[in-house]
Amino acid sequence: MIHYYLPFNRLQKVRQLSERSLAEAARLSRGAVRRLLYPARRGNLTMSSIGHLAQVFDRDVEVLVGGHDIFSDYSTVATAFKIERDGFDSWKTHLFDFVDEYRRTADGRLVILPPPSSCDRRITALLASTVRSLCEELAVSTPRWTTLRYFIATPWFVSGMNSLKASALVESPLYFRANNIFVHSNFLSRA
């Protein structure tokens, strides 16, 4: 069985595309598109059909071999999609839900894949920096994608408060600073 996590049905709604227009754009039958849009209707899916539909939405497809429940609502990919769906300002809620789940489980499957290439660069940089920090904290191996540099052109002070910028410049951990993101030393702490 093929498992995938691409919220095609959400992307369809956001872009206001009909099944027919998706089928034409992806060069697939409407039945195949329906099976991809609605996970409960899965039948015979091929990587080719997933790839065709992913191209319509400018998404990358990476193949993972694994067992049951390989994908989670708290993975880096799912977190990026949730932020995209709910708007940039929702990043705190979704990021810290991810942080809590990763600390709780230390499940490497949550961090194995990078956010999609269409993700806001600030969110990709923030997720990469966060994952590296958490992997170091938990003494687990770091996924290769997080070791790439996701430097953002304009410094991002995540607190959003001018009065805290100076302390963020001093306290920001290396993995965040390397991507031009400035947080406080207790950024990943929860009350």
Q: What features would you describe in this structure?
A:
It contains 9 helices and 2 strands. The protein has 191 residues and is mainly α. The chain folds into 2 domains: 8-56, no CATH class; 76-182, no CATH class. Helix 5 runs antiparallel to helix 6 (91-105) and helix 6 runs parallel beside helix 7. The chain is elongated.
TL;DR of this structure?
This protein is mostly helical. It contains 9 helices and 2 strands, in the order H-H-H-H-H-H-H-E-H-H-E.
Mean pLDDT: 84
Specify Rg, calculated over alpha carbons: 18 Å
Query: Strand order, biggest sheet?
Result: 1-2
Q: Count up the helices.
A: 9
Distance between the termini: 41 Å
Q: What is the strand content?
A: under 5%
- Any idea how many domains? 2
Low-confidence stretches: 65-70
